[in-house]
Design goal:
Order of helices and strands of chain A: EEEEEEEEEE
Structural class of chain B: mainly beta
CATH topology of chain A: Immunoglobulin-like
Oligomer: heterodimer
Structural class of chain A: mainly beta
Strand content of chain B: over 45%
Strand order of the largest sheet of chain A: 1-3-8-7-6
Distance between the termini of chain A: 39 Å
CATH superfamily of chain B: Immunoglobulins
Radius of gyration of chain A: 13 Å
CATH topology of chain B: Immunoglobulin-like
CATH architecture of chain A: Sandwich
Mean pLDDT of chain A: 93
Low-confidence stretches of chain B: none
Low-confidence stretches of chain A: none
CATH class of chain A: Mainly Beta
Shape of chain B: globular
Radius of gyration of chain B: 13 Å
Helix content of chain A: under 10%
Shape of chain A: globular
Largest sheet of chain B: 7 strands, mixed
Amino acid sequence: QQQVKQSPQSLIVQKGGISIINCAYENTAFDYFPWYQQFPGKGPALLIAIRPDVSEKKEGRFTISFNKSAKQFSLHIMDSQPGDSATYFCAPVSGGGADGLTFGKGTHLIIQP
Amino acid sequence: GAGVSQSPSNKVTEKGKDVELRCDPISGHTALYWYRQSLGQGLEFLIYFQGNSAPDKSGLPSDRFSAERTGGSVSTLTIQRTQQEDSAVYLCASSLGDSYNEQFFGPGTRLTVL
């Protein structure tokens, strides 16, 4: 059973535009909703994360929107830059993720100059 | 170095050989995780250690895979009798071990089984 569905698989956005990546989940026990960013040849790195007691969290150009009733959360990248070109993974977990992460399939984002 | 380190960075082996992959976590991190990243399967959780013990081994793909951690620090992932489907990037991460603590990933070991 696939617990996490991430979309789209790939995304091309013009510089300055808004990039939106979505993650749908099934497990209502999830209580921590992080997004990871991965550049080629590197391991993933935590970008931003949200807990279910808030509906939105913003850090600079990056925003997570969380919809508990729909069991969805999304990553918005405002004013997208070529340096944002990377693969993004959602990795919702229960228990804060102390026992390991389950990643979505990833979204390959390309920001065109 | 302040980050998670892994060695070797690349490993090419022949089918049927055993391989050992090493992970050096961030100093002071009690939790250590192994993941596998491949084109077909994405990022898969393999196993995690809290200190030297591994409470959850359910992610290991088969009994050819094993992992150990000694002294609460360095960990090795061993794959016996490698198969071509074992070709992937093996990633290690470490964290302070409590809930909601960030996992810091190493650069990975790219394993190619010929």
